[in-house]
Amino acid sequence: MSVRLRDIHKVFLLDKQKVSALKGVNLNFSQGSQVAITGRSGAGKSTLLHILGTLERPSQGSLFVGQQDVSSLSDLELSGFRNKNIGFVFQMNNLLSEFSALENVMIPGLIGKLSTKHCLDRAWVVLKAVGLEFRAKHRPGELSGGEQQRVAIARALFMSPKLLLADEPTGNLDKKTSLVIQDLLLKLCDEYKMTMLLVTHDIDLAKRLPKQILMEDGRIIN
């Protein structure tokens, strides 16, 4: 899925002071792109990712995901569009501790009001895709950090999104486990033909993606 950003600004109100997190960002990503977004803390990387994922609205500018101008959608329409088209993988996997791996993976489908049978069948498929079907009945507390992140990736893949957004997906993992998750993400992006935009401080990870973007003070530098 292609992505276009036109003159994106984002202003937050902090202690009654206006803080500009993004300052006129213009970017184009073609379908199937794999892009690393790098930069120091506070550069605007996560804010940009949240706007790309429609979790935040820009203060100014337009965002097109595929042919859809998402800036024009209502909150309800935006929620439905996001659930169907965008997958998220965060540094904190945000799994629900009281649910099994299988149940956690099913959540996007249940939110989308798909049948329970369809959700169960699809959850098994994506758990198998991340090599974790044998841990389907285990709860997050019974899984290693790498296994939890694989469950989070499976959940992100549940609706077969064309856009995958990852914010420091290996930030909480040791080096060996991090490499396993990196390999898995890159493999799945190729298999599912997804556009992937990934925020990271890990320069080695960034270099594994075909394109890198450097941010500084709310602007694209390179």
Give a nutshell description of this structure.
With 222 residues, this protein is an alpha/beta fold.
Give the topology, please:
Blueprint (H helix, E strand, L loop, with lengths): L2 E12 L2 E13 L4 E5 L6 H8 L7 E6 L2 E2 L5 H11 E5 L10 H11 L4 H14 L15 H13 L5 E5 L7 H18 L2 E5 L3 H6 L2 E6 L2 E2 L2
Parallel strand pairs: 3-8, 3-9, 6-7, 7-8
Antiparallel strand pairs: 1-2, 1-4, 4-5, 9-10
Q: How many DSSP helices?
A: 7
Which fold name is given in CATH as the topology?
Answer: Rossmann fold
Helix content: 25-40%
Structural class: alpha/beta
Q: Tell me the major beta sheet.
A: 6 strands, mixed
Q: Per DSSP, what share of the residues sits in E-state strands of 2 or more residues?
A: 25-35%
Q: Which runs of at least 5 residues are low in confidence (pLDDT < 50)? A: none
Whole-number mean pLDDT: 91
What tags apply to this protein structure?
four-stranded antiparallel beta sheet; 7 helices; alpha/beta; 222 residues; single chain; globular; Rossmann fold
What does this structure look like?
This protein is an alpha/beta fold and about 220 residues long. It has a single domain, classed as Rossmann fold. About 35% of the residues lie in helices and about 25% in strands. Helix 3 crosses helix 4. The chain is globular, with a radius of gyration of 17 Å.
